[in-house]
Amino acid sequence: MRLLGVLTAIFGVSYAVFEKDSKRMLAFSTIVQLGFILAAPPVSGFYTLTHGLVKSSLFLLVGVLPSRNFKELQQQAIPNSLWIAIVIASFSISGFPLLSGFGAKALTMKNLLPWQEVAINLAAVGTAIATAKFIFLPHAKVTTGRKLTLSGWLGIILLLTALFIANAVYFDAYNLGNISKALGIIAIGWGLYLGIFKKLSLQLSKAGEQFDNLVGMMAVMLMLLFSLILAQLAPSFLAFS
């Protein structure tokens, strides 16, 4: 399962960093985060919770952007309020301190086996590159265009607040080494995005996205996640009985 997690993360990030469509990028990012979850099964619960909060908020927010295409989004400002919400969620998935994504990533990194570390750290840098596409979008005080409803904003506020609260799950992550590493990974990712990836127009082959391939991959992932959940719950059931 750990090997599959590494391969999944690398596959997802290879597409996410080059993807020009915002929703497709989020989909590939989900594959990357699933790789993180599978790479360290003993601590997967916290990462799964954090990922669910982040992706729920990002998909809601991206749905009201004026375009799905990053090239087009770079040419027009989005509302400040929308940008701030997207940045908070993007910071969390990148592993920025003060948000639960930081603790989740630190806990996952701590439970990696030595042979996994290089690949998962590269996937973390790739995640920072991918989310930089949102973070560096132009923004201003805009009153026109599509807007979130009041109920939509309430949902976003609850999800983002949960990212701060869930940060308390693993306070042990807050040491100089973990903070320095997280900020270093993010800085490298942002630097690579601004210096290289923002200017690239490369599009990877979509052969790996064919329907049959995706269905097969998702079926395998669901079975693995189900077995992982059963493995974690089994001791509790045995103790109860």
Helix/strand layout:
Elements: H1 2-16, H2 22-39, H3 44-62, H4 70-73, E1 78-79, H5 80-94, H6 100-110, H7 117-135, E2 139-140, H8 150-165, H9 176-197, H10 211-240
Helix pairs in contact: 1-2, 1-7, 2-3, 2-7, 3-5, 3-6, 3-8, 5-7, 5-8, 7-9
Radius of gyration, in angstroms, nearest whole number = 18 Å
Q: Enumerate how many helices there are, as a single number.
A: 10
Give the low-pLDDT segments.
none
What is the string of SSEs from the N terminus onward? HHHHEHHHEHHH
Trace the largest sheet across and list its strands: 1-2
Distance between the termini: 28 Å
Please tally the β strands and state the result.
Answer: 2
Shape: globular
Mean pLDDT: 87
Overall domain count: 2
Helix content: over 70%
Beta-strand percent range: under 5%
Largest sheet: 2 strands, parallel
Secondary-structure-based class equals mainly alpha
Short description:
With 241 residues, the protein is mainly alpha-helical. Helices cover 70% and strands 2% of the residues.
